[in-house]
Design goal:
The chain has 67 residues and is mostly helical. It has one domain. Helices cover 72% and strands 0% of the residues. Helix 1 runs antiparallel to helix 2. The longest helix is centred in the last third of the chain and has 25 residues. The protein is elongated, with a radius of gyration of 15 Å. The two termini are 21 Å apart. Bound molecules: zinc ion. The site of zinc ion has 6 residues, from helix 1 and helix 2.
Length: 67
């Protein structure tokens, strides 16, 4: 079911990835604030965030849905 005005709508996958990235950031910040992450833990969160971000960018490139 495609809408002709699909350029206005963002795709479901994009929304999901965006949400995932936001959640990762929020959780990472919470962890840092509450317990303090080790340097290793911090690096792990940074890595996860970069992966999520690159997926989002890939999705944009694939169908230009992020505008
Ligand atoms: Zn998309």
């Amino acid at each position: 079911m495609r809408d002709f005005r699909s350029s206005v709508l963002s795709c479901v996958e994009h929304e999901r990835l965006e949400f995932e990235l936001l959640e990762l950031r929020t959780r990472g910040q919470d962890l840092t604030r509450l317990r303090g992450l080790t340097r290793e833990g911090q690096a792990e969160w940074d890595r996860r965030e970069r992966v999520a971000l690159s997926r989002l960018v890939d999705d944009d490139l694939e169908h230009e849905c992020g505008r």
